[in-house]
Amino acid sequence: MSIGSLREAFMQPYYGSAVDGFYYYLMANNKKFCDSTPGQYYAKFCSIVQSSGTGKSRLMTEVRTDQSFCSIPYLIGVVAS
User: Fold this and answer.
1) Half-sphere exposure of 61 (CA within 13 A, CB side)
2) Which pLDDT tens digit goes with each residue over 56-73?
3) How many C-beta neighbours within 10 Å does residue 19 have?
4) What number of other Cβ atoms are within 10 A of residue 59's Cβ?
5) CA–CA separation, 14 vs 58, rounded Å?
6) What is the mean pLDDT of the chain?
7) Are 6 and 54 in contact (CB under 8 A)?
8) Which of 19, 23, 39, 47 sits most deeply, having the most CB atoms within 10 A of its CB?
9) Where are the beta strands (DSSP E) in the chain?
10) What is the DSSP code (8-state) at residue 54?
11) Which has the closest alpha carbon to 11: 66, 58, 55, 60?
């Protein structure tokens, strides 16, 4: 996929309820973290593990657009040159 095609795909309207579902999942985890006893949870994080081309980046972009959100990608097996 070219950069132009990728840019165009991200400019299209987002359809579906995955963003809302993911956001509510994050909020539920945040509540569990805040209500937990010290030491019960290590940190506020979750992993998104999906195959290439399934919409991880778009999901993060849409959540960031709609809500206050921080995303730090962790790329396994990627070596900086």
Assistant:
1) 11
2) 888 888 887 666 666 666
3) 19
4) 20
5) 9
6) 80
7) no
8) 19
9) none
10) S
11) 58
